[in-house]
């Protein structure tokens, strides 16, 4: 069947058969006969479990007996009297089957063998038309992107999926932004991930296979129901949860050019009230890149310049698992338990050559090595209760636990141009434990109104060490330098409560809400800055009004929300983290949250099969958190040789505004060709870092065009182009970047398998280029990573799973293997 029957329907079916059993018993004449057989899907040959089969008397169509097929599609009707009967089989989504049968004294047992039911899907000119979700679905407070409608990230990771989500951009380091802001909240199955958007603990998104993602919910202006954190909005990544009866699954093998491999297996088994699911994903990738930077500074009437170039190879291995079960309890209750262990091992090696000029001219060659060992465990228990007598009433609760242990070692050794050729290392060890609990309740007030309320609490405990090591002069051993080594502690407690009210009146829909959040943050860097403590209580209102316009299918919507951006622990803790021997980043314990007021005005119209969505937005930020670069004059003087030492830091100052427009179009151009396009154009204004110049502003934007082709019923093709215009920062500018991808997928073996071929960034144009400048400092940065990659993937579908009838995802440049 195209969709599995719920256990509730199965119970109702059994109850129905139980009530009719006395009638069947009275109708039997000679309880000696039986009828057996198997029901199959005509297209795939797969068994049809839990399908109704009944036997009627031939002369008057009166009921005699009934049964349901087992998981293997088999059925047996026992203790039938001899005579002529009519056998009927019915299943949702299939044409009914009728067959005349006879039981005689010579043949009281009838073996019908396999019988095939035809799907009710309609075939039109080689294109399969079935009931399926749209690529983009709009609701009052969010936009839902169904991943299987795209062919640009399967075999990749969650980072690659987000690269093709409207309103979202992904930087080369994996940092995710919405409408130019990286201060967003990323949820996984509605739960916060403490390492989702970069950070010292690694990027959790790079550990989630794209093939395990069902959809992405984009909330650009969240209501009070959502956490107030995330200035730019909320992204909720929903993972697939197989609930089909019996055994189902998917096996994937992917190969990319220049040593990129990915394989995964997902399985589930549903029997009655219990559904057990699990998956495993293994990745082994090599990626290459090259970079250069050119820095100038003026110190005491001297101009120093450092030009640095390098090449590196990143080899990463990740092992990701997921195991859990759903259990149906009495009174419409379900309980879900999930545990997700993830292990990442990576090694980034390379060479650098720095050319110094100013007081002296020198060349300094070096090698570097970065190793990351990251262990992450997420566990959750979820509860859900609904009421048959009160449609829409719902109670949900969850308890989540996260453990993260990360050990990151940065090592570098000069090979020429220096009298000291000893290696130095910085060993950062992070240990994080977090627990969160949430309770949400939805209460309908009539048919067109409802009240939502909930509570949430989250506590995070984080501690670690940052040891600076120097190789001994006479051997391979290392000494710890106490004056450059640190230990830190960090605690954060957040508590929240919210209530929202939603009402529909004629063609109007309205929603208003209020959220209260209390945050208590504390931390300390031993051998560094003393303890810090932050406490703040804030109220966050939200409101949305939507109007359905007369005439054509179109709606207009206006929304408002107040948000905040809490500084993370790596932004608050003041100890240096070296990227190489001439640059580091450091936190700021005086950092405070920034606050955002956001407005949106949207319009959606559908004409035939085409849909057009447009949005005007405005966002104003106070107490803005700015990321800055400065010259560390003391370290520059101590280093000598004319080298420039820079520090990256953050601080609150000024305001920022962003306003603009977004447009998305979904238009079929032919039965075999569909166009999906989206774009944004906006102006960003930020307070200049020096305070001696006008605020920095630029008109920027993004664009994405995807052409999907279906030249044959089994072959899908896709051509996708992406572009991100230039953007400004408080101290500089980021250059534009774009790319074009091409992919195709062929379904095989009666839709039991799929073969995919893809080339990412076919013109090899993806790179990151930026510039920064202050009163006495100017720098340019360039990084070109391996983005033009060929991929080949093979997917095998188990049980009732099949390749989607529409084009699905494939890998995006910059990560992962390939597959369905």
TrEMBL record:
InterPro entries: Beta-barrel_TonB_sf (IPR036942), CarboxyPept-like_regulatory (IPR008969), OMP_b-brl_3 (IPR041700), Plug_dom (IPR012910), Plug_dom_sf (IPR037066), TonB-dep_rcpt-like (IPR039426). Gene3D superfamilies: Carboxypeptidase-like, regulatory domain (2.60.40.1120), TonB-dependent receptor, beta-barrel domain (2.40.170.20), TonB-dependent receptor, plug domain (2.170.130.10). PROSITE patterns: TONB_DEPENDENT_REC_3. Residues 156-234 form the TonB-dependent receptor plug domain. It is a multi-pass membrane protein. Residues 1-27 form the signal peptide. It is found in: Cell outer membrane. Residues 390-796 form the Outer membrane protein beta-barrel domain. Keywords: Cell outer membrane, Membrane, Receptor, Signal, Transmembrane, Transmembrane beta strand, Transport. Transmembrane segments: none annotated. PANTHER family: PLUG DOMAIN-CONTAINING PROTEIN, TONB-DEPENDENT RECEPTOR-LIKE BETA-BARREL DOMAIN-CONTAINING PROTEIN. Belongs to the TonB-dependent receptor family. This is TonB-dependent receptor. It comes from Hymenobacter glacieicola.
């Amino acid at each position: 069947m195209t969709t599995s029957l719920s256990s509730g329907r199965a119970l109702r079916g059994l109850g129905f058969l139980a009530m009719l059993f006395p009638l069947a018993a009275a109708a039997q004449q000679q309880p000696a006969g039986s009828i057996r057989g198997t029901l199959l899907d005509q297209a795939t040959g797969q068994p049809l479990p839990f399908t109704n089969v009944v036997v009627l008397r031939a002369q008057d169509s009166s009921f005699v007996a009934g049964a349901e097929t087992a998981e293997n599609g088999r059925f047996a009707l026992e203790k039938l009297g001899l005579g002529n009967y009519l056998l009927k089989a019915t299943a949702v989504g299939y044409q009914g089957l009728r067959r005349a049968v006879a039981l005689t004294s010579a043949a009281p047992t009838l073996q019908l063998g396999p019988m095939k039911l035809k799907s009710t899907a309609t075939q039109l000119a080689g294109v399969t038309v079935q009931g399926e979700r749209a690529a983009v679905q709009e609701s009052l407070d969010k936009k839902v992107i169904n991943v299987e409608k795209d062919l640009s990230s399967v075999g990749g990771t969650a980072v690659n999926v987000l690269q093709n989500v409207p309103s979202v951009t992904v930087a080369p380091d994996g940092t995710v932004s919405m409408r130019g802001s990286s201060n967003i909240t990323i949820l996984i199955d509605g739960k916060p991930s403490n390492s989702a958007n970069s950070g010292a603990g690694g990027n959790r998104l790079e550990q989630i296979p794209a093939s395990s993602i069902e959809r992405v919910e984009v909330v650009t202006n969240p209501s009070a129901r959502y956490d107030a954190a995330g200035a730019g909005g909320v992204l909720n990544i929903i993972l697939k949860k197989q609930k089909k009866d019996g055994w189902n699954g998917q096996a994937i093998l992917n190969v990319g050019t220049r040593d990129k491999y990915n394989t995964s297996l997902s399985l589930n088994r549903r029997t009655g009230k219990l559904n057990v699911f699990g998956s495993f994903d293994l990745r082994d990738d090599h990626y290459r890149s090259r970079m250069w930077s050119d820095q100038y500074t003026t110190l005491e009437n001297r101009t120093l310049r450092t030009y640095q170039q390098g090449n590196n190879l990143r080899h990463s291995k990740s092992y990701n698992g997921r195991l859990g079960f759903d259990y149906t309890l009495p009174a419409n209750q379900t309980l879900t338990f999930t545990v997700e262990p993830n292990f990442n091992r990576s090694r980034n090696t390379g060479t650098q050559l720095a050319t110094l000029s100013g007081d002296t001219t020198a060349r300094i060659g070096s090698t570097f090595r970065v190793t990351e060992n990251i262990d992450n465990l997420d566990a959750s228990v979820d509860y859900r209760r609904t009421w048959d007598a009160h449609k829409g009433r719902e109670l949900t609760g969850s308890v989540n636990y996260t453990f993260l242990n990360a050990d990151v070692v940065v090592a570098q050794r000069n090979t020429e141009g220096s009298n000291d050729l000893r290696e130095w290392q910085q060993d950062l060890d992070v240990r994080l434990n977090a627990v969160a609990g949430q309770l949400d309740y939805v209460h309908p007030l009539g048919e067109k109104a409802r009240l939502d309320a909930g509570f949430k609490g989250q506590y995070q405990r984080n501690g670690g060490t940052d040891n600076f090591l120097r190789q001994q002069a006479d051997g391979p051993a290392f000494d710890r330098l106490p004056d450059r080594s640190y230990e830190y502690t960090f605690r954060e407690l957040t508590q929240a409560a919210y209530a929202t009210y939603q009402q529909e009146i004629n063609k109007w829909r309205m929603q208003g809400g209020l959220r209260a959040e209390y945050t208590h943050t504390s931390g300390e860097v031993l051998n560094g800055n003393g303890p810090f403590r932050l406490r703040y209580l804030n109220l966050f209102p939200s409101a949305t009004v939507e109007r359905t316009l007369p005439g054509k299918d179109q709606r207009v919507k206006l929304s408002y929300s107040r948000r905040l951006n809490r500084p993370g622990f790596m932004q608050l803790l003041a100890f240096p983290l070296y990227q190489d021997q001439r640059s580091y980043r450091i936190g700021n314990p005086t950092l405070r949250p920034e606050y955002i007021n956001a407005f949106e005005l949207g319009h959606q119209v559908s004409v035939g099969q085409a849909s057009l969505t447009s949005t005007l937005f405005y966002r104003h930020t106070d107490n803005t958190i700015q990321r800055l670069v400065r010259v560390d004059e003391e370290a520059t003087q101590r280093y000598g040789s004319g080298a420039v030492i820079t520090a990256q830091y953050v601080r609150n100052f000024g305001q920022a505004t962003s306003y603009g427009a977004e447009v998305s179009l979904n238009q079929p151009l032919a039965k075999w060709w569909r166009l999906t396009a989206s774009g944004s154009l906006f102006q960003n204004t930020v307070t200049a870092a020096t305070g001696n110049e006008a605020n920095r502003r630029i008109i920027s934007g993004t664009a994405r065009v995807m052409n999907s082709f279906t030249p044959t019923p089994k072959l899908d093709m896709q051509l996708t182009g992406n572009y991100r215009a230039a953007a400004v920062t408080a101290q500089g500018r980021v250059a534009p970047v774009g790319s074009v991808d091409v992919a195709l997928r062929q379904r095989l073996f009666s839709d039991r398998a799929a073969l995919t071929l893809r080339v990412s960034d076919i013109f090899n144009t993806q790179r990151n280029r930026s510039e920064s400048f202050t009163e006495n400092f100017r720098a340019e940065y360039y990084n070109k990573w391996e983005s033009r990659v060929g991929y080949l993937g093979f997917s095998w579908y188990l049980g009732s799973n099949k390749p989607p009838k529409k084009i699905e995802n494939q890998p995006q440049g910059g990560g992962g293997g390939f597959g369905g």
